[in-house]
Amino acid sequence: MTDEGNAVFDAVLDLVASRGITETTLRRVADRSGVDGKTLRRQYGSQFGLFMTAAKTLEFDRDRRLAAVGGEPRSDSVADRRAYLEAVTRALLPDPTDRRRLLLCTEIVAGARLVHGIEVETARMRRSDRAIVATALTRTGVADVELETERLLALISGLAFELAYPHGAGEGTADPVIRHHIATIVH
Fold first, then answer.
1. By C-alpha distance, which of 143, 141, 33, 38 is closest to 81?
2. Residue pLDDT, tens place only, 66-79
Protein backbone atom coordinates (compact mmCIF):
# COMPACT_ATOMS: atom_id res chain seq x y z
CA MET A 1 0.00 0.00 0.00
CA THR A 2 1.23 3.52 -0.75
CA ASP A 3 1.80 6.10 1.98
CA GLU A 4 -1.41 7.78 0.86
CA GLY A 5 -3.27 4.45 0.95
CA ASN A 6 -1.94 3.77 4.45
CA ALA A 7 -3.06 7.22 5.60
CA VAL A 8 -6.55 6.60 4.19
CA PHE A 9 -6.79 3.13 5.75
CA ASP A 10 -5.57 4.50 9.10
CA ALA A 11 -8.19 7.25 8.91
CA VAL A 12 -10.92 4.67 8.16
CA LEU A 13 -9.75 2.57 11.13
CA ASP A 14 -9.75 5.58 13.45
CA LEU A 15 -13.13 6.86 12.31
CA VAL A 16 -14.88 3.51 12.43
CA ALA A 17 -13.47 2.92 15.92
CA SER A 18 -14.58 6.33 17.17
CA ARG A 19 -17.74 7.08 15.17
CA GLY A 20 -18.97 3.85 13.57
CA ILE A 21 -19.37 2.88 9.97
CA THR A 22 -22.22 5.20 9.00
CA GLU A 23 -20.32 8.27 10.24
CA THR A 24 -17.14 7.33 8.36
CA THR A 25 -17.67 9.53 5.33
CA LEU A 26 -15.34 10.52 2.50
CA ARG A 27 -15.17 14.05 3.88
CA ARG A 28 -14.16 12.84 7.35
CA VAL A 29 -11.61 10.42 5.90
CA ALA A 30 -10.17 13.27 3.80
CA ASP A 31 -9.93 15.52 6.86
CA ARG A 32 -8.35 12.79 9.02
CA SER A 33 -5.94 11.42 6.39
CA GLY A 34 -4.86 14.70 4.83
CA VAL A 35 -5.74 13.32 1.39
CA ASP A 36 -7.76 15.67 -0.80
CA GLY A 37 -11.48 14.81 -0.99
CA LYS A 38 -11.42 14.92 -4.80
CA THR A 39 -8.59 12.41 -4.82
CA LEU A 40 -10.57 10.12 -2.50
CA ARG A 41 -13.66 10.39 -4.68
CA ARG A 42 -11.60 9.62 -7.80
CA GLN A 43 -9.84 6.63 -6.16
CA TYR A 44 -12.71 5.12 -4.14
CA GLY A 45 -15.83 6.62 -5.69
CA SER A 46 -17.85 6.70 -2.49
CA GLN A 47 -18.08 5.61 1.12
CA PHE A 48 -18.89 2.15 -0.27
CA GLY A 49 -15.61 2.11 -2.23
CA LEU A 50 -13.68 2.98 0.92
CA PHE A 51 -15.22 0.05 2.76
CA MET A 52 -14.61 -2.34 -0.12
CA THR A 53 -10.93 -1.42 -0.06
CA ALA A 54 -10.84 -1.73 3.73
CA ALA A 55 -12.54 -5.14 3.55
CA LYS A 56 -10.01 -6.35 0.99
CA THR A 57 -7.19 -5.21 3.29
CA LEU A 58 -8.73 -7.19 6.15
CA GLU A 59 -9.03 -10.23 3.88
CA PHE A 60 -5.40 -9.89 2.88
CA ASP A 61 -4.47 -9.91 6.59
CA ARG A 62 -6.68 -12.99 7.12
CA ASP A 63 -5.11 -14.77 4.16
CA ARG A 64 -1.61 -14.14 5.55
CA ARG A 65 -2.68 -15.63 8.89
CA LEU A 66 -4.20 -18.64 7.09
CA ALA A 67 -1.02 -19.17 5.04
CA ALA A 68 0.94 -19.37 8.28
CA VAL A 69 -1.39 -22.15 9.49
CA GLY A 70 -0.57 -24.43 6.57
CA GLY A 71 -2.80 -26.64 4.52
CA GLU A 72 -3.25 -29.77 6.61
CA PRO A 73 -3.12 -31.07 10.17
CA ARG A 74 0.36 -32.41 10.99
CA SER A 75 -0.98 -35.91 11.62
CA ASP A 76 -4.23 -37.81 12.10
CA SER A 77 -4.00 -37.58 15.88
CA VAL A 78 -6.89 -35.89 17.66
CA ALA A 79 -4.49 -33.34 19.19
CA ASP A 80 -3.05 -32.34 15.80
CA ARG A 81 -6.45 -32.15 14.12
CA ARG A 82 -7.75 -29.97 16.98
CA ALA A 83 -4.66 -27.75 16.87
CA TYR A 84 -5.07 -27.30 13.11
CA LEU A 85 -8.77 -26.42 13.39
CA GLU A 86 -8.04 -24.05 16.29
CA ALA A 87 -5.34 -22.30 14.21
CA VAL A 88 -7.74 -21.91 11.26
CA THR A 89 -10.43 -20.55 13.59
CA ARG A 90 -8.00 -18.02 15.08
CA ALA A 91 -6.87 -16.99 11.59
CA LEU A 92 -10.49 -16.22 10.69
CA LEU A 93 -10.96 -14.09 13.80
CA PRO A 94 -9.74 -10.52 13.53
CA ASP A 95 -6.67 -9.91 15.68
CA PRO A 96 -8.05 -9.12 19.16
CA THR A 97 -4.94 -7.09 20.00
CA ASP A 98 -5.65 -4.64 17.17
CA ARG A 99 -8.88 -3.08 18.38
CA ARG A 100 -9.29 -0.78 15.37
CA ARG A 101 -9.14 -3.66 12.86
CA LEU A 102 -11.41 -5.75 15.04
CA LEU A 103 -13.96 -2.93 15.14
CA LEU A 104 -13.67 -2.36 11.40
CA CYS A 105 -14.30 -6.04 10.68
CA THR A 106 -17.35 -6.25 12.93
CA GLU A 107 -18.69 -2.90 11.73
CA ILE A 108 -18.40 -3.94 8.08
CA VAL A 109 -20.43 -7.06 8.80
CA ALA A 110 -22.96 -5.19 10.94
CA GLY A 111 -23.01 -2.24 8.56
CA ALA A 112 -24.17 -4.36 5.64
CA ARG A 113 -27.70 -3.19 6.35
CA LEU A 114 -26.68 0.45 6.82
CA VAL A 115 -24.30 1.31 3.97
CA HIS A 116 -25.84 0.77 0.54
CA GLY A 117 -23.97 -1.78 -1.56
CA ILE A 118 -21.76 -3.22 1.15
CA GLU A 119 -24.07 -6.21 1.68
CA VAL A 120 -22.74 -7.76 -1.56
CA GLU A 121 -19.19 -7.62 -0.22
CA THR A 122 -20.11 -8.98 3.20
CA ALA A 123 -22.00 -11.86 1.55
CA ARG A 124 -18.90 -12.63 -0.54
CA MET A 125 -16.73 -12.49 2.61
CA ARG A 126 -19.10 -14.91 4.39
CA ARG A 127 -18.99 -17.33 1.44
CA SER A 128 -15.19 -17.20 1.49
CA ASP A 129 -15.06 -17.87 5.24
CA ARG A 130 -17.60 -20.67 4.83
CA ALA A 131 -15.43 -22.35 2.18
CA ILE A 132 -12.32 -22.04 4.37
CA VAL A 133 -14.09 -23.55 7.39
CA ALA A 134 -15.65 -26.37 5.35
CA THR A 135 -12.26 -27.26 3.88
CA ALA A 136 -10.61 -27.25 7.31
CA LEU A 137 -13.38 -29.43 8.75
CA THR A 138 -13.06 -31.87 5.85
CA ARG A 139 -9.29 -32.05 6.42
CA THR A 140 -9.85 -32.86 10.09
CA GLY A 141 -12.25 -35.68 9.25
CA VAL A 142 -15.44 -34.19 10.69
CA ALA A 143 -18.50 -36.24 9.75
CA ASP A 144 -21.16 -33.52 9.31
CA VAL A 145 -19.21 -30.74 7.58
CA GLU A 146 -22.29 -28.62 6.74
CA LEU A 147 -23.61 -28.53 10.30
CA GLU A 148 -20.21 -27.95 11.88
CA THR A 149 -19.39 -25.22 9.34
CA GLU A 150 -22.49 -23.29 10.43
CA ARG A 151 -21.71 -23.84 14.11
CA LEU A 152 -18.08 -22.77 13.77
CA LEU A 153 -18.96 -19.70 11.70
CA ALA A 154 -21.52 -18.68 14.33
CA LEU A 155 -18.88 -19.11 17.02
CA ILE A 156 -16.36 -16.99 15.10
CA SER A 157 -18.92 -14.28 14.48
CA GLY A 158 -20.05 -14.27 18.11
CA LEU A 159 -16.49 -14.16 19.41
CA ALA A 160 -15.57 -11.31 17.05
CA PHE A 161 -18.48 -9.24 18.33
CA GLU A 162 -17.71 -10.14 21.96
CA LEU A 163 -14.07 -9.12 21.48
CA ALA A 164 -15.11 -5.87 19.78
CA TYR A 165 -17.92 -5.00 22.18
CA PRO A 166 -17.32 -6.88 25.44
CA HIS A 167 -20.38 -7.17 27.61
CA GLY A 168 -19.44 -9.30 30.54
CA ALA A 169 -16.93 -11.82 29.31
CA GLY A 170 -13.46 -11.54 30.71
CA GLU A 171 -10.34 -10.89 28.69
CA GLY A 172 -8.95 -14.04 27.08
CA THR A 173 -12.42 -15.62 26.96
CA ALA A 174 -11.99 -16.62 23.31
CA ASP A 175 -9.30 -19.22 24.02
CA PRO A 176 -11.28 -21.61 26.24
CA VAL A 177 -14.43 -21.11 24.16
CA ILE A 178 -12.61 -22.03 20.94
CA ARG A 179 -10.91 -25.05 22.54
CA HIS A 180 -14.13 -26.32 24.07
CA HIS A 181 -16.07 -25.96 20.84
CA ILE A 182 -13.38 -27.66 18.77
CA ALA A 183 -13.19 -30.51 21.30
CA THR A 184 -16.88 -31.15 20.66
CA ILE A 185 -16.23 -31.29 16.91
CA VAL A 186 -12.98 -33.27 16.70
CA HIS A 187 -12.80 -36.40 18.85
1. 141
2. 999 999 999 999 99
AA letter at 75: S
Whole-model pTM over 0.90: no
**Which stretches of 70-117 are DSSP H helices?**
78-92, 99-110
Beta strands, E only, 6-118 = none
Contacts of 8 (CB under 8 A, 6+ apart): 29, 33, 35, 40, 44, 50, 53
How far apart, in Å, are the Cα atoms of 150 and each of 9, 93, 125? 31, 15, 15
Give the span between the Cα atoms of 142 and 186, in whole angstroms. Answer: 7
- Whole-number Å distance between alpha carbons of 154 and 111: 17
Residue 183 contacts residue 82 (beta carbons within 8 Å):
yes
